[in-house]
Design a protein that fits this description.
Length: about 700
Amino acid sequence: MIGQLVRFEREQDVAVVTIENPPVNALSPGVPEGLKAAIEQANADAEVHSIVVIGSGRTFIAGADVNEFGKSTSDRYLASLVAAVNAVEDSAKPVVMAIHGSALGGGLETAMAGHYRVIAPSAQVGQPEVKLGLIPGAGGTQRLPRLAGVAKAVEMCAFGAPVKAQEALDAGIVDRIIEGDLRAGAVAFAREIAGKPGPRTCDLNHKLVNTDPAIFPAAREQTRKKMRGQTAPLAAIDAVEAATKLAFADGLKREAELFGECLRGPQSKALIYAFFAERAVTKIPGISSDTPTYDIRRAAIVGAGTMGGGIAMAFVNAGIPVIVKETSQEALDRGMSQILRNYAGAVKSGRITGQAMEQRLALITPQLTLDGFDQADLIVEAVFENLAVKQQVFREIDTVAKTDCVLATNTSSLDIDRIAAATARPEMVIGLHFFSPANIMRLVEIVRGQSTRPEVIATGAALVKKLGKIGVLAGNCPGFIGNRMINVYGREAQLLVEEGATVEAVNLALLDFGMAMGPLAMFDLVGNDVMRDIAEVSGTKPGARQPLLLAQLCALGRLGQKTGKGWSQYDQDRKASPDPEVADFIEKTARAAGIERRVISNDEIVDRCIFALINEGARILEEGMALRASDIDVIYLTGYGFPAWRGGPMFYADTMGLSKVVARIQEFEKRHGEALWNPALLLRRLAEQNQTFTQAPKN
Ligand code: NAI
């Protein structure tokens, strides 16, 4: 071994350098140093004619060590990466990089410094740094265009999507695909090329000439659309463009400058925070890897509507067979044909094969009875959002389900304990709040009732992971975490239009802030009736001003996209346009209620909506309904379209400084009254102590 993390071996004339840093061979401190030393040792060994670098376990180097970028020593860390990469490229003996699993970020940068690259057919390579608000910082933006051409490099560095082995070969990123034993194939390849100096990527300039200069503005335009508000993709494009204008060494300097700007900027801090926040959600007090879980091999779903159908797809996509029960043949047929349409769309767009679709459909058993429910390990209820209906369903399934069957409800706001009380086994009942469309959205709120057993929570968490989703634990309060917060956010959006902002101005201000869509556009998408129900369950504080419009729009049949009219009007393709009728209606309603109409700035629109989220988030935290502020952020990033580069509402509040947040909320309190606006106790306390949410002591 060289150090702890790099193994040096010889297969006669070939040195084999193996990175051994499980689980993903990240370039943690010690790996770059070990790699550099191994290359030097191979060069000093007269018997060695060529060198293979390979990863142990399931992957090549999957990337840099993200932990290191958050530290004050990040400059030194980056220097160690660059030194290792340079040592590889400068090696007098040719270096063959043998890639399996993933070579991403620093992993691909290391691979590109080798003189040759061979790859397993199932492997992928990429420069996903933009997803963390960064750009490649160890030469990736300079070497990739030299191997793959400028257009491909721009695409990979700016959008961050990985490419598979065949595409990497076609693009010139790798030299050969090796079927079978990768190490043996790489060693054989190393013997083929031994004795000749290997081509140094930094010297390959032919793909840089005759670059179409239109690539860069076109890519900038595309990132502005696809990655709205993000700075790193633009920096990545600048860095690749520099490769076409500057000598290699100067290009590296430019890359380093741009990397530094990204690293010091707020967006990478937010995105790196979000990366770790997602990983923290699995830490649930009282539940450990030793907590037993129930094995979920067969599931049953009650209700084949929007959610039941999506949940069924999520299960069978993960290989878990499901029974889907409905009350009428008509509803069942409707549900199944929607599932079929969704899969057919996935086949058409090439996301899955026709064969995969058939296999998945074969795992779904549609029926009108409770047959087979006694075999299910998990039953998910996804019927209408009505307590009495849900209690009736739970009473029924309680009579048939086996004793160790987990009973889940997909309610988006009702009291889990009252649902559980309809059974003789409330300890087996849990909320699994999927988001729509459930086959696509990653978020699931795992709701703990007062009696829910730890084993049932652990099972829920394990299941959500198996479905490839992110489960965040929530307490049992009206609307849980996400919808409880969206209720106050939506309330402010409505009050703003009552006070004189247009529907379009409200939507646009929050879109510009970075939200995936404006709040009233979201109402129209989800359905105003659904939003009204959430608001009813969440309730309003006594004495607080009630938004007037939502119920009235519902009464007018303006439910949103599904009826072609809501806050906006929608054409055949569901494209929104302003509706003068609504504007007129809003104005009349507001005047009749004596609401003063005024000009409202975009800043006020954003602050009222976002600070309402933050304040409610603080209350949720203070009540222990969320385990940690970062869990709330994960919910908002994965379920509600909050811009990841702002880290989530709680992190965003931290970046502003909590005393500023309190001061602004107090301004709103003065104008709109204490019942609507009143800084949460926790928020006030943290602000007074000059603390933050995301570093606050965990409860
Ligand atoms: P939906 O109205 O599309 O579907 C409900 C289905 O349940 C209908 O097909 C109905 O025939 C069926 N059903 C009613 N009673 C039944 C019974 N006793 N046995 C079998 N099937 C029965 O409603 P959707 O949107 O799917 O909502 C279902 C649940 O999911 C609700 O609790 C809702 O709050 C929740 N939810 C909805 C979300 C959404 O965006 N639509 C998001 C997250 C949760």
